[in-house]
Amino acid sequence: MLIKLSLISLVTLASAAPSTTTSTSAASTPTAAPLLPIPAFSGTFANAYPPVDKTAPTDTPLVKQWLAELNLTAMPDFPPTKFNSGGDLENPNSVPADTCDWTVTNCINKDITNCPKRTWGLTYDDGPTEFSPQLYDFLDTTDQKATLFYIGSNVVTNWQAARRACAAGYHIAVHTWSHNPSTTLTNEQFVAEIKYTELAIKELCGITPTYFRPPYGDIDNRIRGLLVQMGYTSVIWDIDTNDWMMAPGGTRTEAQVDAAFDQWVAGAANLTEGHVCLEHELYQNTVNAAIKNLPKIQLTWKAMPVAACVNDAHPYQEKNITLATLDGAQTGSGAAVKSLSASVVAAAAVAIAAASFGL
Ligand SMILES: *[C@@H]1O[C@H](CO)[C@@H](O)[C@H](O)[C@H]1NC(C)=O
Ligand SMILES: *[C@@H]1O[C@H](CO)[C@@H](O)[C@H](O)[C@H]1NC(C)=O
Ligand SMILES: *[C@@H]1O[C@H](CO)[C@@H](O)[C@H](O)[C@H]1NC(C)=O
Ligand SMILES: [Zn+2]
């Protein structure tokens, strides 16, 4: 269900946006003082990046260097999968069970799928886009941080929004270069997709992400092996807003997306685990839905980035950067340290009390 429309619609619509909207996000400036000191950036990239929205090439000196740094000897070794033009995996029955392919069986390995009880992993995929500044403006009003799973092609196109999010202390993570299903890529292509995205984020923000979400959730043990080699934790989700289906020509209404949020609010009291929720900063209407529904989530759950809910205060390779966590670990120093918004935590405490009365 997830795969069917999204492979086509996300990629084509996402690629339509950047060429016409390159500089619109520059108009929006951060409302809050920067938390992370990000490097100067002239507007011209020092590195050469692949064409946007195309599978990253593997024959460049950079990719050869990245591959040489990895030891793929002990990797699970099986061929890439194939998806058809409709965005569906071909011959799912022929995929061996021991590849732990999420697309076939929702198999997870060490992927993060949930946050702890009462916490809500707030995640927005497919940015940065021309719509991101609206979302960030809103999140900043309650000092709400989130994990942003960025597409490398969108990072180089909408780099102003990326720098703003980095500086404000959002949790920046990787969602491939071209948004193709990861299991369809060769080892070399997948490494190139991750490392080019990582390099663009490093060049713009001075940080190196260590969290990854596979487009469409499409991951197996070969991809997981490559991620481990590159120092990444993979994140799926346990609840899906299906907000991307509100795309033009899509099959989901805003009311249906709102209703899903209402259900998760109503169900909060009895759950022994928290959620990781899939949302997108991809279209105007997904950003609208995110903005409209977040306040009720904040009243019932403690919303935070995924790294925060698993108490990882150092979700970048630069371990001297510290972000706030659920347990409030603030072991770093300087401007990067930021506690969870007191107002959000207080609101959540009130809501938890309310929820136990059956709200
Ligand atoms: C690569 O990994 C294999 C299997 O773990 C190991 O035997 C080998 O020594 C490693 N090679 C290098 C160069 O680290
Ligand atoms: C929560 O659990 C209680 C006790 O089992 C039950 O009475 C109540 O209906 C449940 N509430 C929801 C929203 O599922
Ligand atoms: C933080 O660590 C990085 C290496 O990961 C280093 O280049 C940088 O200078 C350090 N910054 C500070 C402020 O110590
Ligand atoms: Zn995506």
TrEMBL record:
The gene is CDA2_18. PANTHER family: CHITIN DEACETYLASE 1-RELATED, GLYCOSYL TRANSFERASE-RELATED. One of its GO terms (biological process) is carbohydrate metabolic process. The keyword Hydrolase applies. It comes from the Eukaryota. This is Chitin deacetylase. It comes from Podila minutissima. Residues 118-307 form the NodB homology domain. GO terms for cellular component: membrane. GO terms for molecular function: chitin deacetylase activity; metal ion binding. InterPro entries: Glyco_hydro/deAcase_b/a-brl, NODB_dom, Polysacc_deacetylase_ArnD. It holds the Pfam family Polysacc_deac_1.
